[in-house]
């Protein structure tokens, strides 16, 4: 890739794919440990539906699903992949955990995965590359055209606080409670090309923008943009990247389902006019959600008023009911509704677990249990 | 000079404290030198400093001084074995049973290989078996110290530590059984032969369990910080070493068991997984310096013994390698890493010296004959072993980049 042009490869609308970046920890004190290369080598020898590949540090492994139209089969597939990863990790005495950041690892102890792209990133970004040991979920939604992808990109930005509050699972970082529900987003903000995409609505204009950026030497490929939401022309998708990796596959799939419902809603109903004004409140809303999770506030950029994030989420979920029915994802919609109503997210669960045991090691151990839960191996 | 009695006598007589300080200073400088300038493991420096200052070299530090310093050796061995015990995860053997197979196989083949070589060279079977049993053990001290120095983590490191802990236990079991056979040969008591191993293993595990339970209980009110925990652990380790020695049990099995039980019983991870940092290093440096000082380098000059020793080392390496390789793939280890793991297993336990001394104490005649061969092997591997482990972990790409 890193290619010459960024032709948008059309895909069938509203299809879904998910990538999850997972933590590899040792079973001794649950610190991050090396092992991605061995784990990937072992998994490569076996047949399983999804894909598993190494990421920037040797303490991270990424699993991804194939393309799905419905979340039901996606959940089944993800469970199979999860079980395969857990089973092989067991043979290597490694444990796998979800969560947006490791609660107590020291970034200076991380190693960068061997490989030219990763070596390059490490040289370019120095300590940032190692501090970037954070773990996210990426949701791809198929788009009929580049214009649709950009429409969805900017439309979804209105719901970025929802994504953050639901998925937040990085309250602890470098051994301390950060007071944030998602500290991971702060790590990403250090990168020059993070944040939001420029307000461009036509694919031809976006290509011009991209070419300009490449001529400047700012980027080499789309991969160099670390935006919260970005188009992925080679897949023909729009990619939502603000999610912390949840602690269990069930939540991961529910978040994918939520994204899919929202996309259907946006495409079919075109409920509000897109404008640069959407982004006036973007930073503030994003901060509120990552700091306070479901307890944060939201400034509605369309209706110009401040509401509780949770109320906004519940109202949105109610609106989405017909779309959930059409997409056969009512179960996911219910799950999220319950969590919003009870103000439960993974960050809250982690704080509760830590309160009980007073041990971050024990917290990570429980995270590995949550990830494993339902898997048959052990 | 009457009236100036407050002045000290000259020259000063520092006694053991002086030698402690001199040895520590020389060893740490030599370790730094080895690491910084020669890119070698620090252990080489520690051992060399001990050898140069001790009886093998300049003889500044003689046998009586070494005897007074031996207490540091015992504490160091205790700390290392405890740390190794609580670092390994026996649950891994359940999740990957081939690993247990590899462990048993490498130990068995090393035993058979050493026994075979010695037997071919016309050593009495009992002597050959005793030397082979001692040779099964990889050095926990060398392996843990090199792994820590490199900040190594990964499959080769984890497996090296696990296999080392296991083969140390096997070696002690085998040595104990052979002692029991000796009991029979020398004293003719069947009861002693049967009861001795049972007593050693059962007693060691009992003490280990009690020590672990007591320590976790004592840890409860303490703040969860490495410093406070280290002191408590050090005290408990010394206590366990003392009890095991006084009760004529196995210090190795007791302390490894202490570590393993500590981990198993600590369900709430109350216990900071200890890696003895600065405090522990003091004892480790002393351990290797004293090992260096106890080496009998003159043995290397006897061609017959030297030849036997080299044959034993080669056979041991071959046995361990075949064992590791045979089950590498089923136990999920790439062949390249299996070869590095085999090399990493090379260091031989300095505990061999202790067991030789113990044997000498129990059976003077037997011990003397065992000693020459084993001590020559130890002298060679005390240098070769750390180099091998260092090489293996670095080549596996598991060392921390510096």
Q: What is the compact description of this entry?
A:
With 378 residues, chain A is of the alpha+beta class.
Number of helices of chain B: 16
H/E order of the elements of chain B? Answer: HHHHHHHHHHHHHHHH
Query: C-alpha Rg of chain A, in Å?
Result: 20 Å
Q: What does the largest sheet of chain A look like?
A: 7 strands, antiparallel
Oligomer: heterodimer
- Strand and helix order of chain A: EHEEHEHHEHHEEHEHEEEHHEEHHHHH
Domains of chain A (count) = 1
The stretches of 5 or more residues of chain A where confidence is low (pLDDT under 50) are none
- Residues in β-strands, percent of chain B: under 5%
**Separation of termini of chain B?**
58 Å
Q: Which class of chain B in CATH terms?
A: Mainly Alpha
Biggest interface in this structure? A-B, 26 and 25 residues
Helix content of chain B: over 70%
User: Spans of chain B of 5+ residues with little confidence (pLDDT < 50)?
Assistant: none
Number of strands of chain A: 13
Helix and strand arrangement:
The complex is a heterodimer of chains A (378) and B (402).
Chain A: E1 16-26, H1 36-44, E2 51-54, E3 60-64, H2 71-91, E4 94-97, H3 116-125, H4 127-131, E5 136-142, H5 146-157, H6 160-167, E6 172-173, E7 176-177, H7 184-189, E8 194-195, H8 203-216, E9 226-227, E10 229-232, E11 237-244, H9 249-269, H10 282-292, E12 297-300, E13 305-308, H11 309-319, H12 321-326, H13 330-341, H14 346-357, H15 360-372
Parallel strand pairs in A: 8-9
Antiparallel strand pairs in A: 1-3, 1-4, 1-5, 2-3, 5-11, 6-7, 10-11, 12-13
Chain B: H1 15-36, H2 42-53, H3 63-87, H4 91-95, H5 97-120, H6 125-136, H7 140-150, H8 155-187, H9 190-219, H10 226-246, H11 251-265, H12 278-294, H13 303-326, H14 335-344, H15 351-362, H16 364-395
Helix pairs in contact in B: 1-2, 1-12, 2-12, 3-10, 3-11, 3-12, 5-6, 5-8, 5-13, 6-8, 6-16, 7-8, 7-16, 8-9, 8-14, 9-10, 9-11, 10-11, 13-14, 13-16, 14-16, 15-16
